[in-house]
Write a structure and sequence with these properties.
The protein is α+β, with helices and mostly antiparallel strands and 340 residues long. The chain has 10 helices and 14 strands. Helices cover 32% and strands 20% of the residues.
């Protein structure tokens, strides 16, 4: 071993190994600030903004979508502990100890499913994501703690685990599955010394990804959904979009339907009033539903949700999410629509 001027160690005698050590030393010195050199302050930038040149974290079109089970399941309730209750598809139970999922969490999961479809890549597991991009699509301002509120809602989606009766699009049958919705997420990082910025992303859970890849999707207009002020109105709109019918449709207003719509008011009169308000708002809004209302049923004290909707003159062409073009029909008659 021989010494080398300026180095705190001796260099090996082998020429090739000696040259390798010197190259590594020079590379290290390029990333070490000179003595007395103060680090430069970071620019004042939005911590949750997507860095320049990265994939967009905004919706690309008004054509939104959601996994069809999520449109019909009673997962979106203010109360966390669901217990063993039933919705339009059957049993639903929240089995984790996380915070409640409400209207905001439902809107976010519609956004997530829509962004995944827009990637047009069935192999993708993650979607580009920033809190400010989500806030913009929701019509929120960026101040007043908006990012913190959205982060709390995404955290709740990440923690939520359910045991529920759902249509499993992979095996094309209704079964009881245990599943989550979001695996993990990162809001992204700003530029730092010796480390470039990192884009934010959100990773879909295995069950949700499998369902979307199989084409178990319900489409909805993002502007029509977000244009409804009431959270029950938005739930009702997407619930109806997931139902396969033409012209007129009737359904008894029973506890299963109320659970699917996330209605938890204690008294029967209050629950019916909530359904009526939502039905009235959907009817008055700009969509394909010409009438949604609650009428008397055939039995004493029975109430029925009655819906009339117009069909488009011609359905737009669609393209399958994966290589095989399939139509999956669940036991409930809800069609698994192909992604466009």
């Amino acid at each position: 071993m021989t010494g080398h001027e300026g180095l705190p160690f001796e260099l090996p005698d082998d020429p090739d190994l000696r040259a390798l050590v010197l190259r590594a030393r020079r590379a290290w010195e390029q990333h070490v600030p000179a003595p007395g050199e103060a680090p430069q302050p970071e620019p004042d930038r939005d911590a949750c903004a997507l860095p320049a040149g990265r994939p967009s974290s905004r919706l690309a079109s008004d054509r939104a979508c959601v996994e069809t089970n999520l449109a019909r399941k009673g997962l979106w309730r203010t109360g966390r502990a669901l217990g063993d209750i039933n919705d339009a598809l059957g049993i639903v139970q929240r089995i984790d100890t996380g915070q409640a999922l409400g209207a905001l969490a439902f809107d976010i999961i519609v956004w997530v499913c829509s962004r995944w479809r827009e990637l047009d890549d069935p192999t993708a597991r993650a979607v580009p994501f920033t809190l400010t991009g989500l806030a913009d699509d929701l019509g929120w301002g960026r101040g007043g703690g908006a990012c913190a509120d959205l982060a709390d809602a995404v955290d709740a989606l990440t923690q939520a685990t359910f045991r529920a009766r759902v249509f499993n699009a992979a095996v094309r049958e209704v079964r009881i599955d245990t599943f989550g919705l979001v695996d993990r997420w990162e809001r992204g990082e700003r530029d730092r010394p010796a480390r470039p910025s990192q884009a934010g992303f959100l990773v879909l859970g295995d069950w949700l990804l499998q369902q979307l890849r199989a084409g178990n999707i319900t489409y909805v207009s993002w502007s029509e959904m977000r244009g409804l002020r009431g959270q029950t109105s938005r739930r009702l709109l997407i619930f109806l979009e997931a139902e396969r019918f033409r012209g007129r449709w009737r359904r008894v207003v029973d506890p299963a339907l109320l659970t699917s719509l996330g209605i938890e008011a204690g008294r029967t009169g209050h629950r019916l009033a909530t359904v009526r308000r939502a039905a009235d708002e959907v009817t008055r809004a700009d969509n394909r539903y010409t009438w949604v209302g609650v009428e008397d049923g055939e039995r004493r004290g029975e109430r029925v949700l009655v819906v009339r909707r117009r069909e488009p003159a011609a359905a737009p062409p669609t393209r399958a999410v994966d290589a095989t073009r399939t139509k999956a029909v669940g036991a409930t008659g809800t069609r698994a629509v192909r992604a466009a």
